[in-house]
Amino acid sequence: MNIIGRLTRDAEVRNLPNGKHVVNFSIATNDNYRNKQGERIEHTTYFECGYWISPKVADFLRKGTLVELSGRAYTSAWLGKDGEPHAGLKFHTSQIKVHSSSKRTENKSNESNKKINKENSNSNSNSNNSEKDDDLPF
Fold this sequence. Notes:
There is one protein chain. By secondary structure, this protein is of the alpha+beta class. The chain is built from 1 helix and 6 strands. A 5-stranded mixed β-barrel has the order 1-3-4-6-5. It is globular, with a radius of gyration of 24 Å.
């Protein structure tokens, strides 16, 4: 099964007692349609996701990132601390495709690119100055 949605929170890596790692995150998928009266209805479904293959993927999974996931969906039900029943959708993720990054991730990469470009221009201007000060004829 494939689902496409945006992350609702940053991914977290949990270390299990058996030495394995799991990346936990949640996504929201949107579906919209028109009812019989012609009104547009938008429905959002939330999935709690787990990814067991590599914890490094958590570096790319930030709130707002659009992802396509392959895996299997299942339901879970539990009683809350207050004794009330709860239910949720879970998704055991086997493959992740990142379609777009969150604005926050883009801003961080843009800031780091600006820093790198600034450092490069500073080193270039320094090397140009040292060439001008050089009295060698060649």
